[in-house]
Design brief:
Elements lengths: L18 H5 L2 H9 L5 H5 L2 H9 L3 H13 L3 H21 L3 H24 L5 H14 L7 H19 L5 H23 L12 H11 L1 H13 L3 H12 L8 H16 L3 H13 L10 H19 L3 H10 L5
Helix pairs in contact: 5-6, 6-7, 7-8, 8-9, 9-10, 11-12, 12-13, 13-14, 14-15, 15-16, 16-17
């Protein structure tokens, strides 16, 4: 059950470049992989490329380039990073003999995998709801109890993604059976955990006052869990709160997982129609621009286009900050 997807690399007929020299330059690496998008799938799936990438002393830099493209919506890069997280998860026991460190590494790579799956789902690739479900289940299995908040999040994630997969049009009987098994097993665990929650927890959050009361009643950690769950369930107020919690941390001090969560909830609130969140999402896209180069790469251009898109939505609702921002962005010409 939950055989994480492996992949046999495709064989490329292209002449083998000097990968180590290529990988030493971020600009050259990006141009090689993404200069011609028609060749990106073949390059990323090439046996020579994968071998050189994983053996290189610049592995981290190459991975960061592919990861950036993945989170910008490049589908081949998303699939590559989902595969890489699986590979790193399975390789954790070869990196260290310390069990605690192994568990820490495995959790990290499954959490990374879930974030890439979530991006794929946002792009309509619903088959990755199964992959996300399996990744959540593995995080739960790595723990002996539900005392850890991240583990409880994974438990709820397994249930959520199982439901999502079963609502998709996938007809694979084996995968459907897996999803039903997760829903039955982890759904019961989630209900049991829910039965132990504080009775004074409010049934709904509709005002800022409700959120403030929640923090006074439950404390910061438990209140945060409730708000996060409500945001995931579609509460715009809670989406805005989660977005604001991340944006209040200076960008240079935000850990990667906080940055991803901030972007996620800002996007949810923006898609729900909140103009301030649309403005903030546009700013997050602009913040991704690499201004150290003398030219824009495709990922930069995409971020500019996305920023203008969200500013237009906010401006259409009368948000003056976005009206002014659009004027400043006209100079980019995209």
């Amino acid at each position: 059950m939950f055989g994480l997807f492996g992949r046999k690399p495709k064989v490329s007929n292209n002449p083998r470049p000097d990968y180590e020299a290529l990988f030493s330059s971020r600009k050259d690496t990006h141009r090689y992989i993404y200069g011609d998008r028609k060749k990106t799938v073949e390059i990323l799936g090439g046996e020579d490329f994968i071998e050189a990438w994983l053996d290189s002393k610049h592995t981290g830099q190459v991975s960061a380039i592919i990861s950036q493209e993945a989170m910008a919506g490049d589908v081949p890069s998303l699939k590559q990073m989902i595969w890489l997280c699986d590979l790193c998860y399975n390789d954790a026991e070869n990196i260290t003999r310390d069990r605690a460190e192994q568990t820490k590494r495995k959790k990290h790579f499954m959490q990374e995998r879930i974030s890439f799956c979530q991006k794929a789902i946002e792009l309509g690739l619903m088959e990755h709801s199964y992959t996300a479900m399996a990744s959540c289940a593995k995080i739960v299995q790595l723990n002996d109890s539900l005392d850890d908040a991240a583990t409880r999040d994974a438990l709820r994630g397994a249930v959520r993604y199982a439901k999502m997969f079963l609502e998709s049009r996938n007809t694979d009987p084996g995968l459907i059976e897996d999803a039903k098994g997760v829903l039955e097993r982890y759904g019961r665990m989630d209900e049991l955990f829910g039965a132990t929650r504080t009775p004074s927890e409010p049934p709904a959050l509709s005002t800022v006052g409700d959120i403030e009361k929640l923090f006074r009643t439950l404390g910061a950690q438990r209140a945060g869990e409730v708000i996060r769950a409500a945001a995931d369930a579609g509460s715009v107020l809670c989406q805005i709160f989660m977005s604001g919690a991340g944006l209040n941390i200076p960008a240079e001090r935000r850990p990667p997982h906080v940055q991803r969560e901030t972007e996620h909830y800002t996007r949810l609130a923006a898609e729900s129609g909140d103009p301030n969140s649309q403005f903030n999402l546009a700013k997050l896209h602009i913040a991704k621009l690499d201004t150290t180069k003398g030219y824009w790469e495709e990922a930069d251009l995409d971020n500019i286009r996305q920023a203008k898109r969200w500013h237009r939505k906010a401006a259409a609702q009368g948000l003056q900050s976005s009206v002014e921002a659009l004027k400043n962005l006209e100079c980019f010409g995209v």
